[in-house]
Every structure is written in C-alpha cells, then in structure tokens.
Automatic annotation (TrEMBL):
EC number(s) on file: 1.1.1.306
Keyword field: Metal-binding, Oxidoreductase, Zinc
Top-level enzyme category: oxidoreductase
Keyword Zinc tagged: yes
Entry similarity comment: Belongs to the zinc-containing alcohol dehydrogenase family.
Name of this chain's protein: S-(Hydroxymethyl)mycothiol dehydrogenase
Cofactor annotation: Zn(2+)
Domain Enoyl reductase (ER) residues, every copy: 3-361
GO molecular function term, any single one: mycothiol-dependent formaldehyde dehydrogenase activity
Length: 365
C-alpha cells in the first residue's frame, strides 16, 4: 500500500526548500523502499534548487543518506528487509560497454527506480541524483542500496556522508589520484569534499599533505583531519607555497576541490613535472579555462577528473565503514550539526556562510 510521508521539495528555480507530503508507491520489480535515518545537506542539492542541474521541477531533494530497508519488490536479492544501507547514486548496470570491460566505476547506464514518487495531487517528483532522501521514506533501485554493518544510531549521520561528498573526496585521493605512501599531496579548497580528500591522502600514506583555502577555520579543520601544512591563499601565493613545501618541485598530486578556472590553474602549476592533477570540484558548465598548449606539452603526469571519487560503492562503503569503526577514519568530524527535516533551507544558508563541513538531517531511528 502506498505511503504518505513528509519530504523536502523545491517547486521551481530558486524557490525555498519546503516540507510537504508526498506519496511513495509500493516497490516494483527491482525496487526497494528505505526508511531514511539520516541525510547530509550537500551543495549538490542546492544546485538542484537553483536550476543548475536541470529544470525538471519539482525536485525531491537529498541524497547523502543512511536508511533501513522496509520493503522489497520482486526479484530483489542484494538486500533484505531490515538491512541498514547507505544509498548511492551509481547503481551499476553490469551490461554497458564500461561494465563489460571491467570498468564498473565508469558505468554509462546506472539504475534508478522506474516509478516516480509524487505529490499528493499526483504530480511526479524528480528525485535528486535518483535518490531523494530528505523524506521519511524513499523509493530507489535495489542496486542503490549498499549494505553496511549495523552501526549504532549515533553513527548513522557520519557514515551516511559516504553516500556522496566524503566518498568523492576520499576517492579523489585514493582511487583517482592513486596517492602512494610517501608522496606529497596538495588539496585546494577545504570544504567537505576537500577535507575528505585530505583524510584520504592520510589514509593512503602521504607524508606531506598541504591544505589550501581562504578561510582559516577550514584550514584548522583540515589540520585536524591530516594536513601537515596549511596555506591561506588570500595571504600567500598558493603555487609558490606548495612548491616551497615540496623542495621546489611541486606536489606529486594536486586535487582541485573547488572547480573554477583560477583554482584549476593553481593545481596545474603546483604539481611536479610528472605529477597528477585531479579535478573533483564540480564546475559551473559555463566556465572555460585557457592555458598555453606548450605548458601541457612540457609536462608529464596526468590530468584527471574524479566523478564520485571513482568509487565502487559495494567495495568502498563497507571498507570505509570498517576503517571508521577501527578509529582510523574520523567520519564524525565531518558532522558539524544535526538538524530536522524542516531546517533544510536554513542548513543551505549555513553552508553558504562556510560555517559547517556538513549539516545532517536526522529522521527516524
């Protein structure tokens, strides 16, 4: 029987996020209903609100979530009722050309639920990143559920952030940047994703980890999570500072967690001659960058983009939860505040002021 639940939607471009009732249908074949426990407030949700992702309003927001499976549709075998899960927005198909080559992280046909959740008047909702988790219950494809150990309720908020931002940052360092023991890493932009990249560089064994940002508060948090050096780029030339801290050569890996031309140029020139640049900050689609072609030609290494940290949720989420439970990855440090469903718009404003790494909406336990 369909469920009527409270959820956060945005009805048109730049409209405030508001709580309303929605209808969650019974799960069809390959679909599951998840009772949402927590959901992080990510800037991507605000991009949906601002019409920067598309114009398929109304949107059901939210995607960095933990939950518990409450119903399953026909043919679902990877999860069962009662499983605690982290939701992911890359449910690989196993059939596209990338999957058949073994590059599942580049799957070109990831799965979402076939059915739509709706407003009470029948208007179909577009779920943010195919999840829509600012709600008491959500409908997703079974493959969007990654089963994890049943961590205590106090930890739900922390592990749920692996569903997007924290995974993007850690993966940018470990999976995309392939940081090795003893290497030097610089991260430009120390919001949630950049700070996670610093934590990832520490996990990978980097010995010089340089955090770059304009905000002293963010640099302080970056140090808490593994940065060995900080650079306030408002006061110091970031490229020169990174080179000075790496023997004059530049870092082995430079991660741009901002995604604007100015920071990408800093990343490009702050790497060693054979270093790697990783772009994980999501750029505005209207932005362009211009660099001398000779500067590309005269350097080795690689220039990479990192989408979702090049992760495989089924592999990476349980591994990182294990590291968290062992005390080797401080996911709790990313949870700045815990809020209610009707405080999402306020959380966007707090995020824009740079006051948090993550606000997390807590729902039922």
């Amino acid at each position: 029987m369909p469920h009527t639940v409270n959820a956060v939607i945005v009805t048109e471009k730049d409209a405030p996020a508001e709580v309303t009732q929605i209808i969650v249908p019974d799960p069809g074949p390959g679909e599951v209903i998840v009772d949402v426990l927590t959901c992080g407030v990510c800037q991507t949700d605000q991009h949906f609100q601002q019409g920067e992702v598309g114009d398929n309003f109304p949107y059901l927001l939210g995607h960095e979530a933990t939950g518990r499976v409450s119903e399953i549709g026909d043919g679902v075998t990877n999860v069962k009722v009662g499983d605690k899960v982290i939701l992911n927005w890359r449910a690989v198909c196993g059939e596209c050309r990338a999957c058949k080559k073994g590059d599942l992280k580049y799957c070109f046909d990831t799965h979402n639920a076939e059915q739509k959740m709706t407003l009470t008047d029948g208007t179909e909702l577009e779920a943010a990143l195919g999840i829509g988790a600012f709600t008491e219950k959500t409908l997703v494809a079974a493959g969007q559920c990654t089963v994890i150990d049943d961590v205590d309720d106090a930890s739900n908020a922390a592990v749920g952030l692996l569903g997007c931002g924290v995974m993007a940052g850690i993966g940018a360092a470990i999976n995309t940047g392939e940081v090795k023991r003893g290497e030097s890493v610089a991260v430009i932009g120390c919001g949630g994703v950049g700070t996670a990249a610093i934590a990832g560089a520490k996990l990978a064994g980097a010995t010089t980890i340089i955090a770059v940002d304009l905000d002293p508060r963010k640099l302080e948090k970056a140090q808490e999570l593994g940065a060995t050096h900080t650079v306030n780029s408002k006061e110091t030339d970031a490229v020169e500072a990174i080179q000075e801290l790496t023997g004059g050569f530049g870092a082995d890996v430079v991660i741009d967690a901002v995604g604007i031309p100015a920071t990408y140029k800093q990343a490009f020139y702050a790497r060693d001659l054979a270093g790697r640049v990783v772009l994980v900050g999501v750029p505005d689609p209207t932005l362009k960058i211009e660099l001398p072609l000779q500067d590309f030609f005269s350097r080795g290494g690689s220039l990479k983009s990192s989408w979702y940290g090049d992760c495989l949720p089924s592999r990476d989420f349980p591994m990182l939860v294990d590291l968290y439970q062992q005390g080797k990855l401080d996911l709790d440090a990313f949870v700045t505040e815990r809020v209610k469903l009707d405080q999402v718009q306020e959380a966007f404003e707090t995020m824009n002021r740079g006051d948090v790494l993550r606000s997390v909406v807590e729902l039922s336990a």
